[in-house]
């Protein structure tokens, strides 16, 4: 039996939620508070909405704007297979996260200053350069945060920690988006530049809060891994560990749920020319996370794979609904509220996919093996993002409905794999 299978079977929580001691409660609270700040920051500088809006408003070339989402998504995952060997050499993993959060704060602040003071072309390239730095720093945070969570919070509670932070941040993000309507008479780019600077401040606060986490260290210091052999070992996981391999396949297919949501924004762009229009999509994104993530987290503590399946199916259904509306319901399609509402419903499902797969990978292994799982899976997923982008970009020039249909089909297949994983977990319990 593959090691991940045995570990994950013991990781599925029982009916009784684990009791946290005082140190674990403080650590969980610090993680929730820190993640709340950084998640709000994520919403306020989202490349799918805010950064795209900023560069479009400035008049930056379309080629630069089209690079925002691939850089953000793949740039934060592609380096992980290489940097995880270095991360495993650091005993205090929370220090890695804090350094990454501080770097992200500087990167986001530079985006705000670029939008405020530079010309269209210069701002476009500056934002892309800052986003690249942001993405790489996020790669370090992604690996280290899962290790810190695994060390500091027991199984059976971790999903709720992530879900609660997403719920709080989502609701606060929605409130922040709504407050932007008070500045609708101001120059749009000035408002958005200040939004980016506020996001940078949130990362600074998040780093400070994360320093309060009490991170238990391993009893024995492990030998420092040799980079090349360690890299080969992590890559071999995909071939040797069938449970982990199924997770990789499932997550690759469920990428459709991540890549499809910007297409809903594109379909609604005919009504998006003002700050109020942008607020609708930012508000929808925050509400989707805020109203559902804690419930997704509770479900993920019982089964991360089932959570991924339900979330992916939700995305599939509302993605298909978007296609039907665009093709056959012209009156509804032309309404100002249709696409933000559909974007909200779609992202309710995507919140489940995110919470489910993050909880699964934290519960599926312990120690440095968890680091191997996170880095190997994220790097392979980054390659899949690039490949999917290349394969669907040609179709996008004809109609965004074509790649949207492809992504819905892939998400539906991912649901099937996730249900298979859930069935295997129940049989092994």
TrEMBL record:
Keywords on record: Membrane, Transmembrane, Transmembrane helix
A Pfam match: MFS_1
Q: Per its UniProt record, what InterPro entries does this chain match?
A: MFS, MFS_trans_sf, Sugar_transport-like
Q: Does the keyword ATP-binding apply?
A: no
Tree of life domain: Bacteria
As one GO molecular function, the record gives: transmembrane transporter activity
**Which CDD domains does this chain map to?**
MFS
Is Transmembrane there in the keyword field? yes
Q: Which SUPFAM superfamilies match?
A: MFS general substrate transporter (SSF103473)
What residues form the membrane-spanning segments?
Answer: 50-71, 96-117, 123-141, 161-183, 189-213, 243-268, 274-296, 308-329, 335-353, 373-395, 401-421
Q: What is this protein called?
A: MFS transporter
């Amino acid at each position: 039996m593959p090691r991940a299978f045995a570990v994950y079977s013991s990781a599925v929580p029982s009916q009784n939620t684990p009791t946290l001691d005082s140190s674990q409660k403080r650590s969980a609270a610090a993680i929730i508070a820190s993640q709340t700040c950084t998640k709000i920051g994520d919403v306020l500088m989202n490349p799918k909405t805010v950064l795209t809006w900023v560069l479009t408003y400035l008049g930056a070339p379309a080629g630069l704007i089209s690079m925002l989402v691939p850089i953000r998504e793949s740039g934060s995952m592609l380096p992980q297979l290489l940097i995880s060997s270095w991360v495993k050499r650091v005993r205090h993993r929370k220090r890695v996260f804090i350094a990454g959060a501080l770097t992200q704060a500087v990167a986001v602040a530079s985006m705000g200053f670029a939008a405020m003071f530079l010309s269209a072309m210069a701002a476009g390239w500056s934002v892309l350069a800052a986003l690249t730095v942001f993405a790489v720093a996020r790669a370090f945070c992604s690996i280290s945060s899962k290790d810190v969570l695994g060390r500091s919070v027991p199984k059976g509670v971790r999903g709720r920690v992530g879900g609660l932070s997403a719920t709080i941040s989502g609701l606060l993000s929605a409130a922040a988006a709504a407050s932007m309507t008070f500045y609708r008479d101001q120059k749009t780019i000035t408002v958005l530049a200040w939004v980016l600077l506020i996001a940078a401040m949130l990362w600074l606060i998040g780093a400070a809060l994360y320093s309060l986490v009490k991170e238990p260290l391993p009893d024995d210091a492990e030998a420092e891994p040799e980079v090349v052999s360690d890299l080969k070992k992590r890559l071999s996981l995909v071939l040797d560990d069938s449970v982990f391999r199924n997770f990789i396949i499932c997550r690759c297919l469920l990428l459709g749920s991540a890549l499809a949501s910007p297409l809903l924004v594109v379909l609604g762009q005919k009504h998006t020319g003002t700050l109020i229009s942008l607020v609708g999509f930012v508000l929808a994104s925050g509400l989707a996370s805020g109203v559902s993530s804690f419930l997704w987290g509770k479900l993920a503590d019982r089964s991360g794979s089932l959570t991924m399946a339900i979330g992916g199916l939700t995305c599939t259904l509302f993605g298909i609904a978007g296609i039907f509306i665009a093709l056959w319901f012209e009156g509804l399609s032309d309404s100002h509220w249709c696409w933000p509402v559909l974007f909200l419903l779609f992202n309710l499902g995507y919140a489940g996919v995110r919470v489910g797969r993050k909880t699964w990978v934290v519960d599926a292994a312990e120690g440095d093996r968890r680091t191997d799982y996170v880095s190997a899976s994220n790097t392979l997923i980054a390659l899949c993002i690039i490949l999917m982008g290349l394969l669907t970009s040609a179709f996008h020039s004809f109609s965004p409905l074509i790649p949207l249909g492809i992504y819905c089909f892939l998400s539906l297949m991912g649901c099937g794999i996730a249900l298979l994983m859930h069935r295997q977990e129940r049989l092994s319990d």
